[in-house]
Amino acid sequence: MRQTLSTRRPGxxxxxxxxxxxxxxxxxxxxGTDKTAQDRSTAPRTSATATAQSPDPDATPDESPSASxxxxxxxxxxxxxxxxxxxxDEAFRxxxxxxxxxxxxxxxxxxxxxxxxxxxxxxxxxxxxxxANPDQLAARRFSTGNHKVTTAxxxxxxxxxxxxxxx
Length: 167
What we know:
Blueprint: H1 10-28, H2 35-42, H3 47-52, H4 82-107, H5 115-128, H6 134-142, H7 151-165
Helix pairs in contact: 4-7, 5-6, 5-7, 6-7
């Protein structure tokens, strides 16, 4: 079914088109040159206005006597701050850990404790080594004294780890 603009409420159409027209007209009024700066530079100067004049906005920084020299390629920093990439990596690790905890809780509400992250890392290492009976190993590894994880849940944990966490 095609939707058409409602003609019952013309105010909606006007409200939607007004900002677009205003932006369009604002861009059409200039040819790209600043005529006020040209007028300012050709105006006669007196000794009082010459000392109090603000710098020309079209001037480059090298033309003004108080401007500092532009940095050369040798003085530019080689890389952004090294902590930035480390902070991003740490944020991704934290997000992965939180997602893993939530997914483990989905499998079994008793799972998802912070120590289960270390158990998941160890289970990933065992999955990459292709150990025998990984589902039983996961069930034993994630079981605690108060809670026993079944082999079926161990299989779900291994599927979760191999699809999302190990990598």
